[in-house]
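hiii, so i know i said id send this last week but things got crazy w the move. better late than never?? heres the sequnce for the chain we talked about at the cafe, plus the structure i predicted for it. fair warning i was half asleep when i ran it
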Amino acid sequence: MSLTPSHIIQYLYCPRFTYFEYVLSIPQHEEKSFKAMKGREVHDEKLERNKDYLRKRLGVVAKHLDQYLTNDYLRGRVDEVLTLKDDTMAPLDYKFAEYKDRIFETYKTQLYCYAWLIEENFGKTVKKGFLVYVRSKHQVVEVAIEREHVKRVQQAAEQIYHIIGNNYYPKATKSKKRCLSCTYRNICIR
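okay and structure toks below
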């Protein structure tokens, strides 16, 4: 089994997600989420429509569209992998969302995962990523990516494999607010 950014995001939200979904095989039914389905549609449309608009705006010298990347732990499909003027690379991801002066941690974590994949697959440094908010007139927001961010997702990946491989029941998140909207709240023992 290789992980996706969604596995990492779920683990960081609460390690017990990993246990319920991948050790006990209790699905979340994410495929029923309108936003998730719409987001996938938007990704596909944008890949067709936006061939060159970013070059000038972000200092892009080359780009690779719709890149499916893997390493020993993780796999993911990056909407765009950009090569910048300073010879670094950056992931770009479209979001079917409005920008409200705040970037969700889940979006950042996804970019950190992509940074890890890009560095291993292209052999280039990644210092930033970009989010395009489709419902805010395609506003582009830059996200800084530091070594510690990538290290955090690498550690999360190792912990996920530990939980799955050892049938390990981890501690739940310390944030009880997260439990209120959790899919597994009715079966989770706190």
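btw The radius of gyration is 17 Å. thought thatd interest u
miss u guys!!
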